[in-house]
Amino acid sequence: MNALHVGSITNTGQELKESVGLMECIDRVDAEMRKHNSDPFTPVVDSANPNLIRAWGFASAYKNTGLGGGAGVLAFLVGLAWFDADGALVLEQLLLQRPGEEDALLELLRERIEAASVLVTYNGKAFDLPLLRGRCVMNRRPALPARPHLDLLHVARRLHKRRLGACRLIGLEADVLGYVRVGDIEGGDVAARYAHYLRSGDEGALAAVVEHNALDVLSMAALVSLYGEPFDALHDEDLIGLAQVLRRAKALDQARVVAERAVERAVDPEALRVRGEIAKA
């Protein structure tokens, strides 16, 4: 991957105002976890089972076979991330080496969700979780545990859609986090790589798929880190979206502060309209 620098023009034509590399974001999260033991994101030890750590977050991504709906759609790679008891970010990937092992993968996934306090995904509400729940049904397994769910796609759309349009994860990496993937696999090649692996046992065929999945999950952790920062860390144009979100949430005092900052930065005439709407609320 290549980090972008302030002033760089991304592949969608945006000028990067502030460069926040992926690992910098991860390191920032890790440092904050270690510094603030009383932080609400601190992992919680289950009193009934001291060896079970409930992670503050849970991020998943997967790739399917692309062989059609129903039984043909198989989540053969699931990426997870959480913070351990020492505040270190742990990345775990569950790879389905043979379709017949799906029951074991789903059981381990169930255990991980059971140990989590909240789920974090990117488009997981509409895509990942419905598929995984369907696979549990297909395998006659109990439903996955219910947990509060933060789908970062909805956060991204509210904050960045005005500036970026489509909010694909790879686009946010370039235009929000400030890095681009190099040599990343095309989504259309994933199914063929897995089919080749099943036929030949060639693990090298999946190397790029596994790396792609890992970056998906780490990007979610980086976005959570960024969205937890003071709003000044956001791009100027994203302040308008943030002000509108706060107004809808009836956090009017905060909405006024953000809208005023957008006007001060002369972001866009739209900032004046949004500030007026908030003043009338």
What does this structure look like?
By secondary structure, the chain is an alpha/beta fold. A 5-stranded mixed beta sheet has the order 6-5-4-7-8, with helices on both faces. It has a two-stranded antiparallel ribbon with strand order 1-9. Helix 4 crosses helix 8 and helix 8 (238-248) packs antiparallel against helix 9. The protein has helices spanning 22-35, 102-114, 124-138, 152-164, 169-177, 190-200, 207-227, 238-248, 252-264, 269-280; strands at 2-3, 44-46, 49-54, 59-63, 77-83, 89-95, 119-121, 149-151, 179-180. The protein starts with a strand and ends with a helix. It is built from 10 helices and 9 strands. 32% of the residues are buried. The chain is elongated and about 60 Å long. It is 47% helix and 14% strand.
